[in-house]
Please model this.
Amino acid sequence: MKKLYGLLFLISALGLLFTGCKRDLANPVLISPSGVTGFGVSASTVVLSSANDSTMVAKFSWQKPNYATPVVSTYTLLFDIPSDTSGATGWANAIKVNIATSSLQNSWLGTDFNRLLNQLGLPFGSPSTIVVRLKADVNQGTGAVSTVPAINAVLSMTVTPYKVVLIFPKLYVAGDFLVPNWTQIDQGGWILASVKSDGFYEGYINFVNTGNSFKLCTQASWNGTNYGWGGTATTLSGAGSAGNCYSGGPGYYKVAADVTALTISYVLTKWVVAGDFNNWSLTANPMSFNATTNQWTATGVSMTAGAGYKFVGDGNWTTAFGADSKGNLSYSGGNIAVTKTGTYTVTLDLSGGAGNYSYSLK
Model:
């Protein structure tokens, strides 16, 4: 009988033991670490140029956080300027880059890193400080939002971006109002560009005289097709015998030429900055044109972080620029966001032809 009681006691004890083990396995304890360790970058100072476009210029790496139990982690890198990283809206305007699940590094070639920095609106050709934040999250197996707090690590870099000039098919302007006159000049202010390479070209030309005669040339010489007067003010001809195109002035015109349909149009513009800061007024903040730099500027413009603005070229908003999702100027773009409260010099540069329009806030 004692043997029977002993056997029953042993079975009960083993049952409790296995039950306890099963309970522990079903409810692992997750311990959230205080932060991500080992977060670093291959170079804390990066100077970008076309010479290192194809070179790896920045490699970010970090260690896997220890949660004391197996979890699937996801990571996000956020790039921002220091002034935008504090307060209730800190990091709200950061450029976010999602990293492949469980990956512990990410690297950029020069051309890709420069494009990312261009989205931050940093000045070209001079060093700026940026802040990079690594955010680590834990995935829920059910797909629900994780209740585990995200953990972070932050580092600073000094970067010098350069202006990205995209190469599109061009038409070169040659006319009696240029210096030297009737000479094709491959530089900003005297070109139209075709973003889709479909024969439709656009650019902005400063016609300085009361009357301006010109032609649009496919080469930076007279050796290609040269488009001139097509018989009316809105048509073109590529015939060698065609006369000169003509535009009135003086004025700063949006010029659109379709060499397939052989048409040309002119829209007179005079640019202003309009936004939340001036109740979207088309008169409060006019821009001034500099014929040497081919840029429009407005100085002493006070803006508040979180506000939006646009560039408007006429009184009825027919020709106006906002920003697309990548921060590039676009006729159909939304409001351009102000990331920091301050008083600015606002610059609009339309000299590069379609696809290379740009702006800055300094």
Remarks:
- The longest strand covers residues 128-138.
- The two ends are 94 Å apart (CA to CA).
- The chain has two helices and 26 strands.
